[in-house]
Amino acid sequence: MTLDTLIDILYIGAGNITFGNDNVLWNHSLRVERLLGPRLNVVAIIDPNYERYKQVLGQKLASSAAAAYKTTKYFPSLQSPGALDYLTSTNIDLFILGTPPLYRGTTYPNRDLELEILKHFGNKPTIFLEKPVAVTRPDQPLEVAHSLNDARLTIGVGYMMRYLKVVQKAKSIISKNNLTVSCIIARYANAYQRVRKVDWWTKSQQGGPIIEQATHFCDLVRYLGGEVIMESVKSQALEHWEPAGKLSHQCIDESAIPANDRIPRATTAMWKFESGAVGTLIHVVALHGIRFSNEITIYADGYQLRLRELYTTPTLYVRSPESDTEEKVYTYPGDDPFFNEMETFISVAAKRANKPLPDRCNSTEADEPPPAEEILTSYEDACKTFAMTWKIRDESEIKADYERSF
User: Would you give the DSSP letter of residue 263?
Assistant: First the structure.
């Protein structure tokens, strides 16, 4: 394999989203290895936790992808001695940013990762950024977005559910039938029993479950229903201190988290879209085990489209004017939104670097949506989803503070 055919990747962040663990479905590195095979070259892994890096590298060197990691360098940060000298002398095709959102999405020092990359690497590399874009207030990532747009940086955000074939099928049904969505109802129930990451339970670290997790469904309702009128958003939450908010099977000691920094147990929200349509969201932290439960139902004149179990067995049920007793069912066995998403990013990065991949496989079934040719969520678009999640959180906290004052 010659150097000009290798796809050079830099990982910033060695956490679960990038390299996985024993109880999550996500692991970007496995998808990247499957997609690129011998064309993969991991230039470096950047993470302040050296022990985590050693664990990850040991696993990779003992795997079938070992060749991709034989020359991988380690740096605690971009600012580490020698890091920028080495990395800027290497033609990195794709940056995969899996750092906690606390360290990006702002113009503040040490919390401005995207701007640091732009400063030192220009707009040559393609960048994949995990959601949410930040945990700060929405005005900061919007300011970052303006700088990235002005520099014409190719950057997208990891809203992987847009890449699901059932979501693309629902999108095509709405488009082909010239439908106007009238109502969307979204439900997302989290399985919390094995969530051992204390940061997830701490609002100041990862924003809380609406900003960090339900953001996927906020993004999908925008993608399928159009823009939301922010002033119309109303919400309320079940807080940890209320009788119905007690949890019995947490694997972390929540008492170590300040009371005002603990996450709510359930949040409901409602809003209007700019089209006049209405929407609702329910997010719940309640289930045991590791499987989530989720569903989005879309209504339009004559149609009901139900997207179910988007993490495990994504399925689309469609009731149309053809029948009021039977639904058409669309499912694509083995469909993996993380794989589909990474396939698109790698394809875009390879094309921009003049290292094109072989033609991507076409759909084998007439009703199977093809792979996305372009990144489906821009940084600026992700900022709109981020603003929506903050609005939901703000509205619920106003009500919670009022109720607790009595």
Answer: P
* pLDDT number for residue 362: 53
Going by CATH, does the domain composed of 162-335+379-404 fall within 3.30.360.10?
yes
> Which 8-state DSSP code applies to residue 151?
T
Distance CA 244, CA 258 (A): 19
Residue 244: predicted pLDDT? 96
Tokens 């503070």 belong to residue: 401
- Domain boundary assignment for the chain: 3-161+339-352, 162-335+379-404
Return the H-helix or E-strand segment holding 32: helix 28-36
The residue with tokens 């009731």 is 319
Nearest alpha-carbon partner for 238 in 263, 266, 214: 266
User: Which stretches of 104-259 are DSSP H helices?
Assistant: 113-121, 139-150, 165-176, 203-206, 209-212, 215-225
Residue type, 322: E
Residue 358's pLDDT is what?
81
Q: What contacts 10, CB < 8 A, 6 or more positions away?
A: 42, 43, 44, 46, 87, 92, 94, 95, 96, 125
Q: Which residue, among 8, 115, 17, has the nearest Cα to 69 in the 3D structure?
A: 8
Helix axes 215-225, 379-404, angle to 10 degrees: 120
d(CA 223, CA 227): 8
H-helix segments, 96-138: 113-121
Cβ neighbours for 199, distance < 8 A, ≥ 6 positions apart:
100, 205, 206
CA 134, 138, 142: angle at the middle one, nearest 5? 90
276 sits in the region (left: phi over 0; alpha: psi -120 to 50; else beta) called left
Mean pLDDT, consecutive 10-residue stretches, the chain (406 aa), reads: 79 95 82 97 98 96 97 97 96 96 94 97 97 94 97 97 98 97 98 92 94 97 98 97 95 94 98 98 96 96 97 96 96 95 97 87 70 96 98 90 54
CATH H-level, domain 3-161+339-352: superfamily = NAD(P)-binding Rossmann-like Domain (3.40.50.720)
